[in-house]
């Protein structure tokens, strides 16, 4: 049985991601905000409200061709 002195996780503590074996570096609230913004961005792309950035097209084309991404220095 756990003692009452053990640290309870709060919403500001990073929560473990199943399958990764260790906690992410981002808090749950930051993960939620990022997820919401990404969903909004992708939705605007899907609806044609914004053009797909050239960088995304370049990465997708490389993935389709099986080429690794160039390292930038």
UniProtKB/TrEMBL annotation:
Protein name: Anti-sigma factor NepR domain-containing protein
Start-end of Basic and acidic residues biased regions: 1-14
Domain Anti-sigma factor NepR: 31-66
Highest classification ranks of the organism: Bacteria, Pseudomonadati, Pseudomonadota, Alphaproteobacteria, Hyphomicrobiales
Region of interest: Disordered: 1-31
Recorded superkingdom: Bacteria
A Pfam family it matches: NepR
InterPro entries (UniProt xref): NepR
């Amino acid at each position: 049985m756990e003692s009452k002195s053990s640290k309870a996780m709060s919403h500001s503590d990073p929560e473990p991601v199943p399958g990764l074996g260790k906690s992410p570096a981002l808090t749950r609230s930051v993960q939620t905000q990022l997820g919401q913004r990404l969903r909004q961005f992708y939705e605007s792309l899907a609806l044609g409200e914004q053009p797909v950035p050239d960088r995304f097209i370049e990465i997708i084309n490389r993935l389709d061709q099986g080429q690794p991404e160039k390292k930038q220095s």
